[in-house]
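During data preparation, a discrete fold description was generated, as reproduced here:
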Amino acid sequence: MIAGVSPDLPHTHHLPAGKEWGLRLLRAPVGLGLRSWWRVRVHGREHLPRSGPVILAANHLGFLDGPALVAFTPRRTFTVAKTELFHGLLGRLLTYVGQIPVDRHEPDTRAIRRAVQVLRAGEVLALFPEGRRTGGEVNHARGGAAYLALVTGAPVVPVALLGTREPGHTDAQLPRRGAPVHIVYGPPLQLPQTPWPRRRTVVAEWTERVRQHLAEHVVAAQSLTGLPLPGPPKAKSHLTRG
């Protein structure tokens, strides 16, 4: 069967100027704030290409993951985030800096087109193949990273996030002040750029390759930093006031 939303994907190499400048202005203060609160360490910057489109595929532990990637990746970075975050003040801020909302429960052609536009403009796009916050082992993956790499030819750089959630915390809790946070970039995985139509079997095969590449990198990053994964997130309490 054929995979893909449509052969009519965006071909523009330009992004709205406001989105670019909004993201550029936000990175420095966010990075400063994170470094003032946690002991942030970045490893493997040399694995990130200095120019051209790049897909960052990261494990997903907690709320801090997205801001950390945007603030500390050496290049300007756009992220794909669940639509539930795009409400209120946070939603307006995410929209202002050009971040991409995605519906996790059904195919989202608008998000795919926006992601392709970012990559064809030669930018960096970060996403979480697991699709939700987990223990971070990357035991499963959705097909977004592989699909976008096949469409655009962008290399997939694995990123291990460690310390962004502590053991026993819910996925919305932040680490204690002064805790170590490690961002570890790994060697890129190059997928063959594949013209439309793209077979679902091909996308599935490369999705598994991306998952394995990221999972192996997460294991290596734990050895490098000495910081283990925190385990599954604690379930949120639904107790009501009596």
